[in-house]
Amino acid sequence: MVNKKSCLVIMLNNYIDIDDRLEKLLTILEKNERYYAEDAVVHYSGDESKNLYVVKEGWFISYTDLYDGRRMVIKTHHPGDIIGFEGIYHEQPADLKSTTAGVLCPFSKQNLDEIFRCSPKLSALLFSISVREQIVATDRLKAVSRMGAQARLAYFLLDLIFRLRITNSSMTNEFHLPLTQTEIGDSIGLTNVSVSRAFSYLVGMQLVKRTNASIKLLDELSLMKLCDYEDRYTKMDTSWFPCD
Fold first, then answer.
1. What would you report as the CA-atom Rg of the chain, rounded to the nearest whole angstrom?
2. Which of 24, 69, 77, 218 could form a disulfide with 81 if both were Cys (CB 3.0 to 4.6 A apart)?
3. Terminal CA-to-CA distance of the chain, rounded, Å?
4. Could you report the per-residue pLDDT of 198-214, keeping only the tens digit for each?
């Protein structure tokens, strides 16, 4: 039986009822654990793509290094996330590393077979989450390619807190952000200086409070208007999901 505190179960339970039978199906995805120290590489781009991962503890980032030495952070990963839905290829498409000490639960692609065979509803949910990732990627592209520094940072902070709330219902408007300013800049295409100036603007406008690695969003509605943010996480259309 999956531990009731499983972040994966908590995340999925936001969209469908994860009963005892579905918990047992998910157990196989979290039966193995691997600990990673801070700043440890999980795999490199081009490595053989054998596993997907459930994030159990800590923060991780997927990234790629560009030919000129710059780095692009593709996505941050938090407890409850499944990493590797893009693993339809034989090689890993990006590097993956920890930004804090953390725990990943690796599982083989073949481990999804029982879920696909035994639960059409859970299969539909995993498919929908994978599709949602493409929609979120489009939103992020719009922010990075068409918005100024302040709007990009606002989008980044909002996207983080809405995702984090999915597995932490008690979270209000404050969260811990264990990323360096460089990693934040690499996520939204900004330099260190631009990130610092953007933070200063949001703080000066009393939209954000920043204390070391703690971020408090003081006016979420104004931040959402600033970057035309759309919450892609809280709700999902499950009306078409098949019954088990």
1. 18
2. 77
3. 19
4. 999 999 999 999 998 89
The dihedral sign for the CA sequence 7, 12, 13, 17: negative
**Residue 50 burial (CB count, 10 A):** 15
Domains of the chain are 7-119 (2.60.120.10), 134-227 (1.10.10.10)
Tell me phi and psi for residue 61, to 5 degrees: -130, 140
Record the tokens describing residue 3, joined without a space.
Answer: 């531990």
Q: What number of other Cβ atoms are within 10 A of residue 57's Cβ? A: 17
Q: What are phi and psi of 11, to 5 degrees?
A: -65, -50
Return the beta strands (E) in the chain as ranges: 34-36, 41-43, 51-57, 60-65, 71-77, 82-83, 95-98, 102-108, 174-176, 208-211, 214-217
List, for residues 12-45, the tens digit of each pLDDT value.
Answer: 999 999 999 999 999 889 999 999 999 999 999 9
Assessment of whether the complete model's pTM goes beyond 0.90: yes
For 88-146, write each residue's pLDDT tens digit. 678 999 999 999 999 999 999 888 899 999 999 999 999 999 999 999 999 999 999 99
Residue 243 has pLDDT above 70, yes or no: yes
CA within 13 Å, CB half, 208 = 27
Rounded-to-integer distance, Cα 109 and Cα 177, Å? 31
